[in-house]
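okkk here we go again. third time trying to get the zinc ion bound version out, last two times i messed up the smiles copy paste (missing a bracket lol). double checked this time i swear
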Amino acid sequence: MKNIVDRFISYTLIDTTSAEDSEKCPSNPNEFILARQLETELKELGLQDVKVDDNCFVYGYLPANTDKKCDTVGFLAHMDTSNATSGKDIKARIIENYDGKDIELSEGIWTKVEDYPQIAELKGKDIIVTDGTTLLGADDKAGVAIIMDVLTELVSHPEIEHGNIRVSFTPDEEIGSGISHIDLNEFKVDYAYTLDGGNINAIDYETFNAASAHVVVHGNSIHPGDAKGRMINACQVLMDFHAMLPVFERPEFTEKREGFNHMVGMSGTVEKAEAYYIIRNHDSALLEKQKKEFENIRDHVNKMYGKQIVEVGLRNAYRNMKEAFADKMHIIELANKAIEAAGHKPVSEPVRGGTDGSQLTFMGIPTPNLGTGGMFYHGNHELLCIDDMKEMVKIVINLVGNIVERGQ
Ligand SMILES: [Zn+2]
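finally!!
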C-alpha cells in the first residue's frame, strides 16, 4: 500500500491548474490525468462503483461493514489548484524534523518566520515545501491524500466499524464552477465533509457568498498620431473602470465579515481589454449591492462614451451555507467530537473564502469543511505539515466511528 506522503507528492506532479475563463468542465484537461490515477487507486483499494464521469468527477463507494444502522457519509476533495500561482513543475521537498527557523526554498527564496510566524509552531515536525517558484497544491491534494489514506486504513483494518462511505474527487473548485456538475445519483449521501481547509482543528460552516465579474472593454485603435478625438484606448477605460470601484473594498483592506471586490487578472490592448474579478460578502444583500455597482459603473462609462463599449458578465459561484445548518448541527458536533478525541480544540470561524461544500449544502447535501494541515495556499510559500496531515486521517476515522455510534 502506498503511504500518504508518496501519494500526495505523486498528485503534485500533475499540473491541474484550473482556468478562470473556461466554459468547460474540467477547465484543464490535465485534471482527467489525475482523475484516472485516482480511479486506479480506488480500484486497487477495492472500492465499489468506482468511476470517472465526463465532467471529471471521480466517485467511489465503500459499503458499511457493520449491521448498525447509520447515516451514509461523503468525503470530498478537489483536484485542481489555484491559478493565482503556477502549478507547473512543482518540486515538492520534504524537510524532516523542521527546526522552526527561516526556510530557504531555493537560492535566495525564503519563507521567513518574520513574514509567516505560524511556521515557528511547526518546529520538530515534518513538512513539505516548494522550491519557491510554484504553489505546492496542498490545496487540495492534501485533502485527496487524506481521503485515500483513510480508505486505506479502513480497508486494511476491517475491525474498525464504519457505515456506508462515498468519496468524490472533484474538478474546478478554485474557479467555483466545478461542483455544480456533480452527479448526486453517484454521490448519494446524507451529508458530507470537504477536506479543503488549513488547520486540522477547524470545522467551517460559514462562508462567503461569492460571485465573479468579467469586464470587457472594446476600444477603438487608431495611429496615435491621428488619435485626437477618435481613439478609445481600451486599457485606459479599463483602468478608469477599476478606479471607480470602492477602494477600501479590496481584499487588502478588509477582514472578518467585510466583503470585497478583487481583480484577479487583467489583459489588454488598445483594441480590447478585459479583467476578471471575484466578488465576496458573508451578507447576501451586500453581495448583490456589490454586483449592482459593476453594472452601474458599466452604464456610467457607456453613457460617457455614448456607446456600449463596456460589457460586464456577472456569475454567482456559491452561497454562505450557515443558514442551512440551523437544524442540522449534529453534523458539526460529530466532527467537533472527532477533533476533541484526537486531543485538539475544535474551532469554527467565518471563512473568508468558500468551499465546494457551500454549493453542495444548497444542493441538499449539508457539507462543512475540515482541515488538511496545509498553509499559505495559492502562493509560492504554500506548505504542508505531514504530521498534521496524518493526524487528520485519525480525526476522519474518529468521525466515521462517531457516525456509527450515533446511529440513525
Ligand atoms: Zn481548496
